[in-house]
Amino acid sequence: MKLATIKDGSRDGQLAVVSRDLKTAQLADGIAPTLRRALDDWAFIAPQLEQLYRELNQGRGRRVFDFDPAHCMAPLPRPCQWVEAAAYPSHVELERSGRGAALPEAPGDEPPMGQGGGEPLGPRDDIALLHEEWGIDFGAGLAVISDDLGMGATADQAHQQIRLLMLVNQVALRNVLPDELAGGLGPLQSRPAGACSPVALTPDELGDAWQGGKVHLALRASWNGKLVGQAQAGVDMAFNFAQLLAHLARTRQVRAGAVLAGGVVSNRGGKRGYSCIAEQRALELAAKGRAATPYLAFGDSIRIEMLDGDGKSLFGAIEQNVAQAVAPVDARRGR
Amino acid sequence: MKLATIKDGSRDGQLAVVSRDLKTAQLADGIAPTLRRALDDWAFIAPQLEQLYRELNQGRGRRVFDFDPAHCMAPLPRPCQWVEAAAYPSHVELERSGRGAALPEAPGDEPPMGQGGGEPLGPRDDIALLHEEWGIDFGAGLAVISDDLGMGATADQAHQQIRLLMLVNQVALRNVLPDELAGGLGPLQSRPAGACSPVALTPDELGDAWQGGKVHLALRASWNGKLVGQAQAGVDMAFNFAQLLAHLARTRQVRAGAVLAGGVVSNRGGKRGYSCIAEQRALELAAKGRAATPYLAFGDSIRIEMLDGDGKSLFGAIEQNVAQAVAPVDARRGR
């Protein structure tokens, strides 16, 4: 099934079931007011949502409305755990070479992974930041939402607890990153709020494309209307989502509603374009000694989408404009 | 006022107002069912909670019950943002020297800070982990809970948005940390779930001890009943909580309910004992060439508390036992 969270002025929004073709939706308020509540008791709530989903797809829904991604928050607007892996070695290598950092040692048994902030934006919210000079980059990827998972769980066990998938735009501030990484505590300021696709879907919606804990479809990234990337998300992924979740669970109880993003999707050799600008710049630097492609400018737009075998959008599109934010006025200083 | 969250089997618990002397409490369900809800609309909710708090302290409460920290969850069990700073340079220096890492460069203008996981335990919950060999350490510190704070806010603005303070036990796995830090994405597995004091309190409860965004009182840490640390939290803190929050807000909207932990409290020279074992081991290593004090063993207990000028507990005590966790049984593998 496909789920979305509709903006209603509250911080958690309202849970809605969305039709498979993304055309219509129906509030799930009689079942669970928010996705958080649904995830809190998934085994009990999910079958009821599935029933609503079936009725909606069969044209038997009540109080049906046209689905509009512009009215969506992130499917889970306030996750308590937001973890970011870097499961595509090709991205890690390019990102590092682009900033002149040492390449990682031979890929080990452990996936690169760090804590992130649980503050995802809706799919049409602006990427609003104070300064272009921070080196604003997009980052197209996939994320899973987990159910409860015990400490020390195996990858097999983790696989069974993957409840939902969604697309993410993992925004990065490339010019803020190097100083921050030198501090050793991981990216913080250099990873501002990202965004999620309009819809989160259960793995069965992917059919055969969900295999071995990976999504075997292309992730399309467009910049100012031009398609710049269509990397295969199931290719060159060194750790699948089940392995990533098991890594997270090694020393902690993973709680229902934890979000784990797999990292910027990246295929070796750059043949299928790029899912973040840093990769393109690294390739230019290596080929011509100079990174020609600039980072995002205010007014730019980014679109991230995944199509099924029939060319139909699975998650709806993330479509964000880059905008200049304004710092709050300090009343005491008059600015 | 003092607030706590009472265990009721749900994931967010029930909000209660606790008397100043920590003896009695009263559910706030008529006002806000959870602390999250209260923080979502603090300007409207807080005055009502304050009124309940006054009545409770005056012996005019209704449905009053004895306050028992054993029934508490963390005051905010599921924060969406959990950030950990390292605001005490003495801790950073000792922790690094203890593992043979280079000392940080001359303290800069930027506080060390990284994302953490929002999964705090209650004050009496076990520190349950799979292996002693991970090098289980406690870490006594303070944390603030923020209201909404705009991107680019000043420290003055941030100071006005500090709503609550609490004690935290920032548990660390010292033998897992070095490999993880080498990866560059910050601590993840090496920072399992920590714990919070029974009570979160508004800054006014601290009276004159809340000055300049710091808490000018000693933080007491006991290990198996023996007092091992009583560092002054207001001394040797290089960045106050307002500055720390402003750092977090530089590239993001901080949302109500964000938790920012200041790091392990540490005074220079070790004269007032230690707030984490790693510091003691580093001092031993420097003095005798060998770290004699072991990390925590299963069965050990840790108590963290802060007393006011009259010797009364302000937040209640964190009292945790270290226990061996058991990994979930994998039905397919029969283990």
UniProtKB/TrEMBL annotation, chains A, B:
GO molecular function: hydrolase activity
Region (Disordered): 96-121
Cytoplasm listed as a keyword: no
A Pfam entry, by short name: FAA_hydro_N_2
Keyword hit for Hydrolase: yes
Keywords from the named record: Hydrolase
Residue ranges of every copy of the Fumarylacetoacetase N-terminal domain listed in the record: 1-78
Fumarylacetoacetase-like C-terminal domain boundaries: 87-322
Full protein name: Fumarylacetoacetate (FAA) hydrolase
